[in-house]
Write a structure and sequence with these properties.
Elements lengths: L5 H14 L2 E2 H8 L3 H13 L3 E7 L6 E7 L1 H8 L1
Antiparallel strand pairs: 1-3, 2-3
Helix pairs in contact: 1-3, 2-3
């Protein structure tokens, strides 16, 4: 099993959230990778203003829930 580059993972994250906002859990399934990988890549994308991560406590279990949305800059990146 070969390791995907973090570039490919970030690209996939941007493609997913371009369609509609997603949580870390939804991204895990759609990008087919683990929670830590999603979290680290989302933090990097957010540092470069490609996405915005909004953290709220989930009403059912009061655990933090991370909603990921794409920014204008992120949309421009996806178009390239």
């Amino acid at each position: 099993m070969h390791k995907r580059s973090s570039y490919n993972i970030k690209k996939k994250i941007l493609m997913v959230v371009k369609e509609k906002p997603a949580t870390y859990a939804q991204l895990e399934r759609k990008v087919n990778t683990g929670y830590r990988t999603i979290k680290v890549n989302c933090e990097e994308l957010q540092a470069f203003d490609q996405i915005k991560v909004i953290t709220k406590n989930h009403p059912a279990n009061n655990k933090p829930s991370h909603q990921v949305t794409i920014t204008e800059k992120g949309l421009e990146t996806v178009k390239k």
